[in-house]
């Protein structure tokens, strides 16, 4: 398939960013709310659900598998309403392939959802998703007793053949991945005994926090999580807080655009998600968080940020990467404005996201005239305080939403207009990104 690139011109913001904004619902929590509600007995009430292409992929998938979804668009742009799950009946055999679109989370979590049932479901995806590694999920699920066809295939399309007699396992994950952890735990809910997932560094823990809301006990410590089956999910109410990964773009914009000062409200403050605030602080940026409460076990509150003229480089150690994994591109853009070198240690996982984000960061920073390089799995950025945007800069988002927003920010907070190819990929996680940021700069 060939995609003709549509170039969007992004102009520098006419004024500093000021005031308050709220961001749409958290993507990771929205996926889980939809999938867990579909697995549960009864009707769950969901609100604040992100309306984006990726979450729509999960919604379509659970509908195809027999859950009754009645989520409706709210005046604030979120989705709210009920999902009646398949509960003890299990998912129905789908008619055709399940299209997971661009969403790694949908594809990988669905494997864990389907593994314990007597169904065969083909999971497919777009060009980007069909390049992403799936063995990290199929390997532990096969140990539990699920099968995947064609045998030995490591990418989508794949057909999962579930088994109602899954074995509980203890699994040492080769990488810190919440998608892998979640797939194994979800399968473990229906296996006989305790399933434990140990990880090399702490990944986001939304699954461990949300399963108990659905009546399934989990035990979790820093690098390990367990569930004891067989158990069952029962319907509950989930209110989804704002997405810190979306907030990160507004926060970084405020840090980069002279004289800005903003706050982002009602955003998830889960520590496994707001590592970017600590990285920015270590670069000397003025960023702070204020806890306001909790939705279920998920903390939420305010993130405040101001323009900072004297940013400096820093080193981000390997064990902190999982907490900023989706924010590395935009943090690399901030590092490009800092004095000295910033090093992101062990960021090899970025190679297997929607595109090779490591290579894309180096390529995009080169467009800005900034030196960045990869040594092994480490990313180095040599910052240039007072960086000027070159005339006619053209960035390729590679149809990756995080890159589209990062390079748009180079234009919004820079000194000259830029062009971003396939900017519309922001619809994957943050469709109203541009209007939110432009509203703050009026
Ligand atoms: O579990 C999740 O919701 C996610 C986990 C992360 O992926 P990995 O599990 O591959 O690290 C992250 O990059 C992705 O955006 C969402
Ligand atoms: C990597 C991402 O998502 P997913 O893995 O669900 O495609 C992302 O949102 O940056």
TrEMBL record:
Q: Where does 3-phosphoshikimate bind?
A: 27-28, 32, 177, 179, 326, 353
Instruction: Give the gene symbol.
Output: aroA
Query: Taxonomic lineage of this organism?
Result: Bacteria, Bacillati, Actinomycetota, Coriobacteriia, Eggerthellales
Q: In which pathway does it act?
A: Metabolic intermediate biosynthesis; chorismate biosynthesis; chorismate from D-erythrose 4-phosphate and phosphoenolpyruvate: step 6/7
Instruction: Please state what class of enzyme this protein is.
Output: transferase
Return the protein name. Answer: 3-phosphoshikimate 1-carboxyvinyltransferase
Cross-referenced InterPro entries: Enolpyruvate_Tfrase_dom (IPR001986), Enolpyruvate_Tfrase_sf (IPR036968), EPSP_synthase (IPR006264), EPSP_synthase_CS (IPR023193), RNA3'P_cycl/enolpyr_Trfase_a/b (IPR013792)
Q: Please provide, alphabetically and separated by semicolons, the GO molecular function terms listed in this UniProt record.
A: 3-phosphoshikimate 1-carboxyvinyltransferase activity
**Positions with a binding annotation for phosphoenolpyruvate:** 27, 104, 132, 179, 357, 402
Task: List, alphabetically, the CDD domains matched.
Answer: EPSP_synthase
Task: Report which reactions are catalysed by this protein.
Answer: 3-phosphoshikimate + phosphoenolpyruvate = 5-O-(1-carboxyvinyl)-3-phosphoshikimate + phosphate
Q: Does the keyword Transferase apply?
A: yes
Cite the active-site annotation: 326 (proton acceptor)
Q: Which organism is it from?
A: Enteroscipio rubneri
